């Protein structure tokens, strides 16, 4: 049984008040969620990346620092959309330390 099936089973046994409390917790947990950015251990070493791609956020941030324009990035990565870049920049603003660390680690590699 996967985690979602287990959650459904648990939800069916919960009271409405318990479900409401759980929903509040989930909303707080997702408060800084970025639906266009995903991080999975089996893709890009777990680094945050643009969904549908293997392009890490740190790579886009570093490319922009080095002078690449958004138009350059969209030409270089045709699978990207303008909204993907906007999401990457927003993710960077709220996860600056994490992305800075990934940039440093990848420069040293």
Q: What is the topology?
A:
Blueprint: H1 3-12, H2 16-29, E1 37-38, E2 49-50, H3 57-65, H4 70-76, H5 82-94, H6 96-108
Antiparallel strand pairs: 1-2
CATH topology of the largest domain: Arc Repressor Mutant, subunit A
What is the approximate shape? elongated
CATH class descriptor name of the largest domain:
Mainly Alpha
Approximately how much helix is present in the residues? Answer: 55-70%
| Biggest β-sheet description | 2 strands, antiparallel
CATH architecture verdict of the largest domain: Orthogonal Bundle
Multimeric status of the protein: single chain
Structural class: mainly alpha
For the record, the count of structural domains works out to 2
Low-confidence stretches: none
Tally the helices. Answer: 6
Q: Order of helices and strands, N to C?
A: HHEEHHHH
Fourth CATH level, the homologous superfamily of the largest domain: Winged helix-like DNA-binding domain superfamily/Winged helix DNA-binding domain
Distance between the termini: 39 Å
Radius of gyration: 18 Å
Q: What's the pLDDT, averaged over the residues?
A: 90
How much of the sequence lies in strands comes to under 5%
Number of strands: 2
């Amino acid at each position: 049984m996967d985690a979602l099936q287990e959650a459904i089973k648990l939800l069916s046994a919960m009271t409405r008040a318990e479900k409401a409390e759980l929903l509040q917790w989930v909303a707080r947990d997702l408060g800084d969620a970025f639906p266009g950015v995903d991080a999975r251990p089996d893709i890009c070493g777990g680094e945050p990346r643009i969904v549908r791609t293997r392009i890490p956020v740190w790579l886009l941030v570093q490319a922009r620092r080095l002078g690449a324009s958004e138009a350059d990035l969209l030409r270089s990565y045709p699978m990207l959309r303008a909204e993907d870049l906007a999401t990457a920049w927003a993710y960077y603003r709220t996860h600056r330390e994490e992305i800075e660390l990934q940039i440093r680690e990848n420069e040293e590699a």
